[in-house]
């Protein structure tokens, strides 16, 4: 089992340009970002950073290799990666995420 964790200061991502967002979010994630705003972006960025830290050989991956959506109950999951378990938490100024790779 491998674990990755990441924390983001939310204001760091407040004014990111579209080209940055294109590197982080898949098309489905962008649709949700347009509805939910900054907290959605900070959560996806933090969890994808955590995923990369949990994986061996991270140089083989980029952020768009992982699509993070929400179950009906609101909990996040990684599409087509049942071996990755994730959690995202938001606080006023920070977002934190954890990823656990079950081998």
Notes on the structure:
Strand 2 (68-70) and strand 3 (76-78) form a beta hairpin. The protein is an alpha+beta fold. The model has no long low-confidence stretch (mean pLDDT 94). Helices cover 33% and strands 28% of the residues.
Computed structural class: alpha+beta
Question: Mind telling me which CATH architecture this is?
Answer: Alpha-Beta Complex
> Rg to the nearest angstrom?
13 Å
Helix content: 25-40%
Number of helices: 3
How do the strands of the widest beta sheet line up side by side?
1-5-4
How would you classify the quaternary structure?
A: single chain
**What is the CATH first-level class name?**
Alpha Beta
**Could you name the CATH homologous superfamily?**
4'-phosphopantetheinyl transferase domain
C-alpha end-to-end distance:
6 Å
Number of strands: 5
The CATH topology: Ribosomal Protein L22, Chain A
Essential attributes:
33% helix, three-stranded antiparallel beta sheet, 103 residues, single chain, two-stranded antiparallel sheet
Write a short abstract of this structure:
This protein has 103 residues and is an alpha+beta fold. It has 3 helices and 5 strands.
Write the layout of secondary structure elements.
Elements: E1 2-9, H1 18-24, H2 27-36, H3 38-54, E2 68-70, E3 76-78, E4 84-90, E5 94-101
Antiparallel strand pairs: 1-5, 2-3, 4-5
């Amino acid at each position: 089992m491998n674990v990755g964790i990441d924390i983001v200061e939310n204001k760091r991502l407040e004014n990111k340009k579209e080209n940055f967002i294109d590197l982080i979010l898949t098309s489905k994630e962008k649709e949700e970002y347009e509805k939910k705003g900054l907290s959605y972006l900070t959560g996806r960025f933090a969890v994808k950073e955590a995923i990369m830290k949990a994986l061996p050989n991270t140089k083989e991956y980029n952020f768009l290799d992982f699509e993070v959506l929400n179950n009906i109950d609101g909990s996040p999951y990684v599409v087509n990666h049942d071996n990755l378990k994730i959690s995202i938490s938001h606080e006023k100024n920070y977002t934190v995420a954890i990823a656990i790779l079950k081998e």
